[in-house]
Write a structure and sequence with these properties.
With about 290 residues, the protein is an alpha+beta fold. The chain has helices spanning about 15-20, 45-55, 125-135, 170-180, 215-230, 255, 275-280; strands at about 10, 35-40, 60-65, 70-75, 85-90, 95, 110-115, 135, 140-145, 155-160, 165, 170, 185-195, 200-205, 235-240.
């Protein structure tokens, strides 16, 4: 970027995070960039702020999908909140529904659905997935979201990544963002794992140079989460690893962290979710 002096920069949260953590990042001149865009995974507010402090440019985060062709909810230079996905793009409508497909209460979290003229008609030779995803004019996105009082959409995680602990939903994104705000942590991932027939939160943590994954640090991170999250959201188990498994676009592959259990098998206690809700669109499905 310093060499070719681009004016626009498009990337993913993983790369933005890697760049701000690169030794001597502040010595690079990226002043030619007037605007940045991020997608593929939710951009943590801490990464947004560090990028702004380090390079001076603003990152616009949003959400899109193959089924909708491009981004349908996004921040704009004039209207943004770091950490959020923004507001519906002109020409699109979005809504948040509960397990019974009813609108959630203000501030409540639920399934994101969207409609707009760019929506795919159906999946090629996949009738059941088409019925579960394309619901009239609306498309079931498979993401768990909430909307704040200002109309900004906040990503809580994929519906099949949400963790139910003691009957209460835990957003892996909230846990990961909170751990990422600790000085010892570069990035983290949270999943649900079975412990004595109960679902518990397990965090996989990548540490900064100079820190060791000791029992003392584990306790410190757990207390950090208890102080900054609801008590039931803290990670009961912490494992320190060198790097997180990710797709080529930078999305965390949480199913690999769950081991042999698949996204459809975890969490075990979400009996309230209809079967079709547990099956979310895959990028490899062909669209028409």
């Amino acid at each position: 970027a310093q060499r070719y002096e681009p004016t626009l920069f498009f990337s993913v949260p993983t790369l933005y995070n890697a760049m701000v953590n690169y030794p001597g990042a502040g010595d690079y001149d990226l002043s030619s960039i007037r605007l940045c865009a991020s997608a593929a995974e939710a951009l943590p507010a801490r990464v947004w702020r560090r990028w702004k402090e380090t390079f001076g440019s603003v990152i616009l985060d949003g959400i899109g999908s193959t089924e909708m062709l491009h981004i349908f909810v996004s921040n704009t230079p004039e209207d943004l909140k770091p950490g959020s996905s923004g507001k519906p793009v002109p020409g699109y409508e979005a809504k948040i529904l509960d397990e019974e497909e009813r609108p959630v209460e203000p501030g409540g979290a639920g399934y994101l659905s969207v409609r707009g003229d760019s929506a795919a008609a159906y999946y090629w030779r996949n009738h059941e997935k088409t019925k579960a995803t394309m619901q009239g004019e609306w498309l079931f996105a498979g993401d768990w979201y909430r909307v704040d009082e200002d109309g900004f959409y906040w990503y809580e995680g994929r519906s099949d990544d949400m963790i139910k602990v003691g009957g209460l939903w835990v957003s892996p994104v909230e846990v990961e963002d909170t751990l990422g705000n600790h000085e010892a942590v570069i990035e983290a991932a949270a999943v649900g794992v079975p412990v004595d027939d109960l679902t518990r939160v397990k965090a996989f943590v990548v540490l900064r140079d100079g820190y060791e994954g000791t029992e003392k640090l584990t306790e410190e991170l757990q207390n950090w989460c208890k102080e900054n999250l609801k008590r039931y959201q803290y990670p009961h188990i912490v494992e320190f690893i060198e790097e997180l498994p990710k797709t080529v676009t930078g999305k965390i592959q949480r199913f690999k962290l769950r081991g042999q259990e698949t996204a459809e098998d975890m969490p075990k206690s979400d009996d309230g979710i209809p079967q079709e809700r547990g099956e979310v669109p895959r990028q490899e499905d062909e669209l028409v």
